[in-house]
Amino acid sequence: MNDALPGDLAPAPSPYGPAGRLLLNSCKALSVAGGLLFVGLVAMSIVSIVGRKLASAPVPGDVEVLQMVAAAASASFFAYCHMNHGDVKVDFFTLRLRARVIHQLDALGSLLVSALGVLLFWRAGVGALSTLESGETSAILGWPVGWAQLAMLPGFALLALAGLYVAGWHLGQAWGGAAEGAAEGSA
User: Fold this and answer.
1) What is the mean pLDDT of residues 144-164?
2) What is the DSSP letter of 10?
């Protein structure tokens, strides 16, 4: 990860160039927004639970709000996680491979992540347009369901871009750092 540890004098520099840092900062901003949405959902849930127990007055439609907002908030974290190489990897079989090969495999994985981001963007977009067209609303509050689905699209778009960028970065490391990779792989 690129975060500084307690006691470090300076944060670790980003391995990415200017475009990558811009993408990383965009992913970070979206994930912070998603985190704030979850904090708001927790606050709403506490108010609703306390209101239900003490005054028989829960927040109307609290479950609907939770479902719709949590979907968008969850979609906001994937791209930042991928940009920071926070994906779950099982490197048992690749542990002893040369660095070049590992970067090539990571590039392939990032391309698959990008393809998944495109697929999710496409299908969520089609679903949102369909529900907006049909006029589907939530049962209690009457909120258009399609708007909640549309709110997931920025997260999926950034995931697709992050996957492409990280794939290119890994390929650059595989081919640009060939001399370093050979030395690391043989150690």
Assistant:
1) 97
2) S
| Helical packing angle, 99-134 and 178-186, nearest 10° | 110
Domain span including residue 143: 18-85+93-186
Cα distances (Å, whole numbers) of residue 81 to 27, 31, 106, 159: 9, 9, 14, 9
Residue 13 forms part of a structural domain: no
**Would 2 be classed as within a structural domain?**
no
pLDDT at res. 62? 95
The answer as to whether 98 is a domain residue is yes
Rounded-to-integer distance, Cα 173 and Cα 167, Å: 10
Total count of domains within the chain: 1
**Phi/psi class of residue 4: alpha, beta or left (left: φ > 0; alpha: ψ in -120 to 50)?**
beta
More confident residue, 86 or 80: 80
pLDDT of residue 88: 84
Is residue 9 in a domain? no
